[in-house]
Amino acid sequence: xxxYVLKLLILLPLIGGMVWGSLKxxxxxxxxxxxxxxxxxxxxxxxxxxxxxxxxxxxxxFHGKEILVSTSRHxxxxxxxxPARSATIIDHEPDDGFDSDFDGxxxxxxxxxxxARTLRRTQR
Length: 124
What we know:
The protein has helices at residues 2-33, 98-101, 115-123, and strands spanning 43-52, 55-62, 65-72, 75-83. By secondary structure, it is of the alpha+beta class.
């Protein structure tokens, strides 16, 4: 009985320390993979939308442009491209009569609808 308690007192903190260490290591590796080490990334994921368990839409910002891509099991497909927006992204915008304001003109400065608003419009 004493041998069992001694093993328990030694192994339990050892296993707890290994669990804590693996969690800290995974946090460090995740930050490193996401660019948390101070490097500036040239590609930024602006927004994603899951269409099904195997398909997702993503808006990527790359060199001053926003690129709408579709991801699936078979790879990436570029769907659209527009100049990057300078305004901050609002996740849940209220319905403000955008459908009546949409003229579809994307020439010149990009003051038109965002990809997210266009996606919401097509889902209706």
